[in-house]
Amino acid sequence: DSAPLATKLQNTLIRYHSIPDSEWRLAKRTKDATVWRKPSEEFSGYLYKAQGVLEDATNRIVDHIRPGPSRLDWDSLMTTMDIMETFQENCCVMRYTTAGQLWNIIAPREFVDFSYTTSYEDGLLTCGISLDYGEVRPNFVRGFNHPCGWFCVPLKDYPGHSLLTGYIQTELRGMLPQSAVDTAMSSTLANFYSDLKKALKT
Known about the structure:
The protein is α+β, with helices and mostly antiparallel strands. It has one domain (2-13, 48-200): 2-Layer Sandwich (Alpha-D-Glucose-1,6-Bisphosphate, Chain A, domain 4), CATH 3.30.530. It has 4 helices and 12 strands; from the N terminus they run αβββααβββββββββα. The strands form 2 sheets. Strands 1, 2, 3, 4, 5, 6, 7, 8, 10 and 11 form a 10-stranded mixed sheet that branches. The protein has a two-stranded antiparallel ribbon with strand order 9-12. A hairpin with a 2-residue loop joins β4 (78-88) and β5. It is globular, with a radius of gyration of 16 Å. GO terms for molecular function: cholesterol binding; cholesterol transfer activity.
């Protein structure tokens, strides 16, 4: 039954969204996005917060992020994606793989995530959490996403612009130096915004 999991996930993300600014530490700033982090409550790594403004409608931005064929077209980190089960139009289980990072210090990863998209204020929230589900494919390490999500809301004073705020806490697993993981996460999130910006212009 997907409904209790969807509700719990949504409530967790809304709680992250209300964490005061004073608890976050700046991790990276680029022209497209700002990334902060704080210790995760879920595991020994960090909860990352990323934020940037995109010149497009909320629905179109979220359609690019949530599970579906358009995600593979622009997200340079994602190498495959299969939707394994669909519960409703806005709710599914997907399996995807990611490319190696940092000159392959971080080997390719596989994830199986429950994904849920719902309305939030005047915009949308698309969120996910990993499931222990199915066999791990050879040549991949199975990573685990603790509650993650993207809030996308229209900017009232700037018609046609949206504020995209993401919360990501990924346990990559495998034998990895934590410093490499932290460097990769900040850069990956900043690149996500610049890749998404380019994709929305096409």
